[in-house]
TrEMBL record:
Organism: Pseudoneobacillus rhizosphaerae
Family annotation (CDD domains): ABC_NrtD_SsuB_transporters (cd03293)
Location of the ABC transporter domain: 17-248
Gene: tauB
Record-given protein name: Carnitine transport ATP-binding protein OpuCA
Broadest EC class assigned to this enzyme: translocase
Length: 269
């Protein structure tokens, strides 16, 4: 695979990501709100993990703490054994909103971080060509974001994040604004990119089908204050295609997860 840098290898025996007793309390004018109770879990190198939970359960708060965009009130997060104290290029981020630079074309958006880091033009061209092929946007390299559909913009955002060769890819409901058909296609595009890159991915979603289809493990969050309710390993064979969503095995996982989410949703009412 074409890459702009060689990723540092994690310490032997150390999980890629460790979340240790992480909690978050927001201070308000009327007092304090506990968004996240002390939560702990680990993610292994190359693992695809989704966090699923009812609205307001703190799943995006977990992701923002891992990204270094939010400071935990308690606990710590370690990436390859090193404590996270703020944002860094070792974590790629893809948001629900389209975050491309409107004044840059597709190729320039993908290679923006590489250019900042002084990567040569030839290597940037090689990386752009690789990811344009991977996300199925060959021929669109000179298009600007305004000329792209929502799904195409998110493909570029994923390619840009991967092009910087982060240790982990963090995704906060990246397909939430897309229509159902485009969302299904984007899930398959993401799986193809993940199978190629072998990146560790932490993915936030409220969509049960999406969480099963993508993940090696689904972490179900409780209603606020959020905490880890249950880890559900997904043993559906890979590679996965759209047809797997019609299988009995998929339906069984869906029934289990819907039941867990329903319990928590009722508590929040």
């Amino acid at each position: 695979m074409v890459t702009a840098a060689t990723m540092n290898s994690p310490l032997i025996g150390t999980p890629k990501l460790e979340i240790k007793d992480v909690g978050k309390i927001f201070k308000t004018k009327s007092g304090e709100t506990t968004a996240l109770e002390k939560t702990s879990f680990t993610i292994n190198d190359g693992e695809f993990v989704t966090i699923l939970g009812p609205s307001g359960c703190g799943k995006s708060t977990v992701l923002r703490i891992v990204a270094g965009l939010e400071e935990a009130t308690s606990g710590q997060v370690l990436l390859d054994g090193e404590v996270i104290n703020g944002p860094g290029p070792d974590r790629g981020m893809v948001f629900q909103s389209y975050t491309l630079f409107p004044w840059l074309n597709v190729k320039e958006n993908i290679t923006f971080g590489l250019k900042l880091n002084g990567v040569s033009q030839k290597e940037r061209e090689d990386v752009a060509r690789h990811y344009l092929q991977l996300i199925g946007l060959e021929g669109f390299e000179n298009h600007y974001p305004i000329q792209l559909s929502g799904g195409m913009k998110q493909r570029v955002a994923i390619a840009r994040a991967l092009a910087n060769d982060p240790k982990i890819l963090l995704m906060d409901e990246p397909f939430g604004a897309l229509d159902a058909q485009t969302r299904n296609i984007m899930q398959e595009v993401l799986l193809k990119a993940w199978e190629e890159s072998k990146k560790t991915i932490l993915f936030i979603t409220h969509d049960v089908d999406e969480s099963i289809f993508l993940a090696d493990s689904v972490y179900v969050m409780s209603a606020r204050p959020g905490r880890l309710k249950k880890k559900v390993p997904i043993s559906i064979e890979r590679p996965r295609g759209f047809s797997v969503k019609g299988t009995v095995e998929f339906a069984a996982y869906k029934e289990e997860l819907l039941s867990l989410i329903r319990e928590e949703s009722l508590k929040s009412i």
